[in-house]
Design goal:
The complex is a heterodimer of chains A (297) and B (279). By secondary structure, chain A is an all-alpha fold. Chain A contains 13 helices and 2 strands, in the order ααββααααααααααα. Helix content of chain A is 75%, strand content 1%. In chain A, helix 4 runs antiparallel to helix 10, helix 4 packs across helix 12 and helix 8 crosses helix 10. Chain A starts with a helix and ends with a helix. Chain B has 279 residues and is mainly α. The termini of chain B are far apart. Chain B folds into 2 domains: 52 residues, no CATH class; 216 residues, MetI-like (MetI-like fold), CATH 1.10.3720. The chains are: A mainly alpha (297), B mainly alpha (279).
Chain lengths: 297, 279
């Protein structure tokens, strides 16, 4: 083996070895992600409607200009912002509060950890189905049992347009808050105890300690959680698809679902591709900004 | 003293409620899977009922058995995990430890591929796989699963490789062990934990995947996630059967979740606590 790899200098040998190890991954990634991406952009410049194949052809930027006057597109864009913004904020707020709460109990964290892992490992599509039937269904769902017991009456949680949006936000928050919780708990556990001791001696209040010590120290973890949660929220699909299918009407149709429905329900793959390109550019732009923001401070 | 005791109890209660919110729907589903159809729709809900295994029998051996779907999920997930690890481990080692031209750029590239939303890939995959006749095939589905599993596994492994002390490698190299032998006998045993974490995550994500499976699968290759989805559109109100099917479909991931909880928490927190990739 040593002879096979022997090269003029150690450096050249290392370079060769590194390339031999990295090139397979590079080739697979190029073939499975970059080539399809180029093909996607190419398709987004075409009219490609499987329902009307005779109309197919090059369309230039036609698909993109069409979006400007497409109310369903603007609606989905707005829903994407609401969905992503609210789920990320809720996850970080609830996750952080719970983590700080649990930090007070050194014992019993094991059970909590299992409880928190449970939603994370479940398939989003199964979560969506579960909520649609057992949790949110009118009359027999768990939530309806509670609201009826409290005298708030029965509601069509997934059938009413406004409630449906709140419901899918709740589903997403239920499933992924444990992620924020676990990460922030681990991050809190690494904080040095002596800083707090000093702060307490200086008579810093609980809020001041949180504001000036805890928050700056776990800031990197929070930003990382926000980035990762945004990625998941922007490409959320299965849970909404299973719970509402994007409906009623287009009440829960975030951009991701709109691109999917356009492509595979209405079979308008060209327009669907351009919607996907918009979503993809948005995701890349946001993650770029977040990474920049992370480095800046 | 007294006040702090009350405070403790109140805090514990809040934590308990949080816990229940996460666990309860799953336990409720488990209970429902053992209920007869009439007990499911009882109001008020019944806690004490005569448990039955009929739902499981029906879901496993009935007309629309999910056994073939479990098999599909198994094949795709295992294939994806093996292929991913086989390609990701060497690449991650190169990224973490070796010098080669274009290293920084290639690290960025891997990171960028991880950001691609699946809906952007599914359209070109649908068109391409249709053309080469790979729709509804294990090869086609596994190839698409590599798109999300490979970048993730590479980055996770990079952070594990970076944690190994450099001296170990140098010592082995000075013994003229050869680079490949060093990697195999000295380095890999050090990152066994990381390999386990990465493999678990790749398997979970592959098992739970839905969007690619529903579009690119078919009658032959139909993972359980798709079968579950079809189940509800066909048999709207048979909740107890749906629950039984869901329990079977999710049994592997729930088991992994409980058995490998330490690994999973590590995988979730690794990047975040260390501050993600350094580049």
């Amino acid at each position: 083996m040593a002879q096979l790899l022997s090269a003029p200098t150690l450096e050249a040998q290392e370079r060769r070895f590194a390339l031999a190890l990295f090139v397979p991954a590079l080739a697979v990634l190029l073939l499975t992600t970059t080539v399809p991406l180029v093909y996607l952009v190419w398709n987004s410049l075409h009219r490609l409607d499987l329902g009307m194949p005779w109309l197919s052809g090059f369309a230039g930027l036609g698909n993109y200009t069409k979006m400007g006057s497409d109310p369903r597109f603007w609606n989905s864009l707005l829903l994407t912002l609401i969905y992503t913004g609210s789920t990320v904020v809720l996850q970080v707020l609830i996750g952080l509060s719970l983590a700080m709460l649990v930090m007070q109990f050194p014992k019993g964290q094991g059970i909590l950890r299992i409880a928190a892992i449970l939603p994370i490992v479940l398939a989003p599509v199964v979560v969506g189905l579960f909520w649609r039937t057992l949790v949110l269904s009118p009359d027999f769902g768990l939530v309806d049992l509670v609201t009826r017991a409290l005298g708030l009456g029965s509601h069509n949680w997934l059938g009413d347009p406004q409630l449906a949006l709140i419901s899918v936000i709740a589903i997403h928050t239920w499933q992924w808050t444990p992620f924020a919780f676990l990460v922030l708990l681990a991050s809190l556990a690494t904080l040095p105890a002596d800083v707090y001791e000093a702060a307490r001696l200086d008579r810093a209040g609980a809020w001041q300690r949180f504001r000036h010590i805890t928050l700056p120290l776990i800031r990197p973890a929070i930003v990382m959680v926000i980035i990762l949660r945004m990625m998941t929220a922007l490409s959320a699909f299965a849970a909404i698809f299973a719970a509402t299918g994007g409906g009623p009407g287009s009440a829960t149709e975030i951009l991701n679902l709109y691109a999917y429905r356009t492509s595979f329900s209405e079979l308008n793959l060209g327009y669907g591709a351009s919607l996907a390109v918009v979503l993809m550019s948005m995701t890349l732009a946001i993650s770029y900004l977040m990474f920049r923001l992370r480095r800046a401070r | 003293m007294h006040r702090s005791a009350i405070r403790q109890i109140a805090l514990a209660a809040v934590a308990g409620v949080g816990l229940a919110v996460w666990v309860f729907p799953v336990i409720w589903g488990l209970l429902t899977s053992f209920k007869a159809e009439r007990d499911v729709l009882a109001y008020p809900p019944v806690w004490l009922f005569k448990p039955t295994l009929d739902n499981y029998r029906e879901v496993l051996f009935g007309a629309s058995s999910i056994l073939p779907n479990l098999w599909s999920s198994c094949v795709v997930s295992v294939l994806t995990t093996l292929l991913t690890m086989l390609i990701a481990i060497p690449a991650a080692y190169a990224l973490a430890r070796l010098k080669y031209p274009g290293k920084r750029a290639s690290g960025f590239y891997v990171l960028a591929t991880q950001m691609l939303p699946p809906v952007g890939l599914i359209i070109p995959y649908y068109l391409a796989l249709q053309r080469i006749g790979w729709l509804d095939s294990y090869s086609g589905l596994t190839a698409t699963y590599l798109t999300f599993s490979l970048p993730f596994a590479i980055w996770l492994m990079v952070s594990y490789f970076e944690d190994i002390p450099l001296e170990m490698e140098e010592a082995a190299l000075l013994d003229r062990a050869g680079r490949l032998r060093t990697l195999w006998y000295v380095i890999l045993p050090q990152v066994r934990g990381g390999i386990a974490v990465a493999a678990i995550f790749v398997f979970l994500n592959a098992w739970n995947e839905f969007m690619f499976a529903v579009v690119l699968g078919g009658n032959r290759v139909r993972p359980v996630t798709v079968a579950m989805f079809n189940f509800i559109s066909v048999e709207q109100t048979q909740w107890s059967k749906l629950a039984a099917g869901a329990m079977l479909a999710m049994a592997p991931v729930i088991l992994i979740g409980i058995l490998a909880q330490r690994h999973i928490v590590k995988g979730l927190t690794f990047g975040a606590v260390k501050g993600g990739g350094r580049r």
